[in-house]
Design brief:
Layout: H1 13-19, H2 28-46, H3 50-58, H4 68-80, H5 82-89, H6 102-117, H7 123-137, H8 142-157, H9 159-164
Helix pairs in contact: 2-3, 2-4, 2-6, 5-6, 6-7, 6-8, 7-8
Amino acid sequence: MSQDTPPTSADQGSKSASTGRKAADKSARTRAREFALQALYQHLVGRNAAVDIDSFTRDLAGFHKADSAHFDALLHGCIAEAGELDALISPRLDRPLPEISPIEHGVLWIGTYEFLHCPDVPWRVVLNECIELAKSFGGTDGHKYVNGVLHQLASQLRPAEVTASPARASGPRKTTP
């Protein structure tokens, strides 16, 4: 995808089918994250003002199905706290922040912002939603990068919640007779 045009829901057409998730199955918060990512992309690439991006995004097809309050929090919160979010993200990167694609950068902002300001959203949900955003809108392996960075941030920003959650089993489960 070109960095000159913002990603749209239409761009993810075949990717949605490959993840097995139908557009109709998406929650209002999932849609809010998708629209927020598109809006943050416009900010990161075009340096457009948040108020202009907000107005433009609300006119996009399907926005009425998104959680507009969550969209507002993500868009305006991420832009207002960009420096703080970048300061948390940067130490976990294997390259300078300007070398991260604007899609992965926006997804990392969303995940970090939700870890900090949305305690009602479990950390695994934040992580999974951001991985899905990166799969749908980002580069081929961008979701793996997002996963690695956000998993580290979850341990830092929500240590009690991460420690309390059971580790996921890797491989087939053993059963006892």
